[in-house]
Amino acid sequence: MAHWLDIVDELYEGSWNPDLQRFRSPYAFRGASSATHSLASSLLRLAAGLEDVRRLEQALLRNFRKYAHGEVSRQDSIWDWLALAQHRGLPTRLLDWTYSPLVALHFATDDPATFKRDGVVWCVDFVAANKRLPPRLRRIVEQEASDTFTVEMLGAFKSLKEFDALRREPFVVFMEPPAVDRRILNQLALFSLMSSPTARLDQWLESHPKLCRKVHVPAKLKWEIRDHLDQANINERVLFPGLDGLSRWLARYYTPTGVGAGLERGQTGVRPGTDRGRSGVRPGSDRGRRRAGPRTGPKRRR
To answer: HSE-up of 194 (CA within 13 Å, CB side)?
Structure first.
């Protein structure tokens, strides 16, 4: 019988680095609530049926830059703008990843409405993927003694078109976004960047199967995994700092077991006008705390 710690062991598999004599994983992680999740970018999902995806990408970024100038501090390059656009929800060719296997596991178990479906965590060896980069990019990471790129390291390429022209066949770069807010820092965020707006990372990985593995997250273990992650302080309140994240955490934390699985995202499983949640006690009360949840939960009223 599968145990939640078996999943944790799988996620940390391959972390030992014999050269450093330290546990430093070469993997990037991406969690999804459904095992059928693909690695198609939000740009490709938006462009479904369109022939000229590149033109759509250009239009999105051009208008994002035009209208965002008054809302953000100066961005120095196309890479700054691309990372910011992805972070703020614009459809781009980027995909969100994390250095943290537990943060990825959070995103595989953050929606009780999906708890009847198996989830998945994608694990990609970005260190090994660097060996398949064009020579010019390999020289950059070697000179910087880095395994991932930053927007500054990509600054030699003034446009996406120039970057894409490095090689005819698709390749992938893993890029750390600028730390523009606490959300990026707390999530240990990382982006994957394909060398074409029409390229899909999952299809590229099919040609390089040794670079990737998928960790299965059984539906029957999701509630248990979710409770352990909450107790470890891996939750929306931490990963999405601010009142929005706090509200998302509380709505999920107090979803009754067995009820949330039949709900759509955004519903809490609590009847309007009541404050009884998953624990069966009112938020702020200490009755049944030992059974209700971890100490990271709401403090009792004084």
So the answer is: 24
- CA Rg value for the chain: 21
Q: Are residues 155 and 276 in the same domain?
A: no
pLDDT value at position 68? 87
Residue listed under structure tokens 């698709």 = 170
Give CA angle at 153 (208, 140), nearest 5°: 60
Task: Report the 10 Å Cβ neighbour count for 160.
Answer: 20
Q: What is the pLDDT of residue 182?
A: 93
* First-last CA distance in the chain: 44
Give yes or no: residues 132 and 256 share one domain: no
- What integer pLDDT is reported at residue 100 of this predicted model? 98
What pLDDT does 256 receive? 87
Q: Structure tokens of 57?
A: 């990408």
How many CB atoms are closer than 10 A to CB 45?
A: 10
Sign of CA dihedral 173, 178, 183, 186: positive
Residue ranges of the chain with per-residue pLDDT less than 50: 260-302
Cα 230 to Cα 120, 224, 271, distances in angstroms: 19, 10, 23
pLDDT value of residue 180: 84
Compute the residue count for the chain. Answer: 302
How many Å apart are CA 204 and CA 138, to the nearest integer? Answer: 19
CA 137 to chain centre: 24
Q: What's residue 299's pLDDT? A: 42
- Look at phi and psi of residue 145 and say left if phi exceeds 0, alpha if psi is from -120 to 50, else beta: left
What residues make up the domain containing 89? 4-217
Q: For residues 88 and 47, what is the distance between their CA atoms, to the nearest angstrom?
A: 19
pLDDT at residue 274, rounded to an integer: 39
Q: Which of 185, 217, 249 is the last residue of a domain?
A: 217
Q: Look-up: residue for tokens 């995202």? A: 265
- For the chain, the domain total comes to 2
228-276 confidence digits (pLDDT tens): 999 999 999 999 999 999 999 999 999 987 654 444 444 444 433 334 3
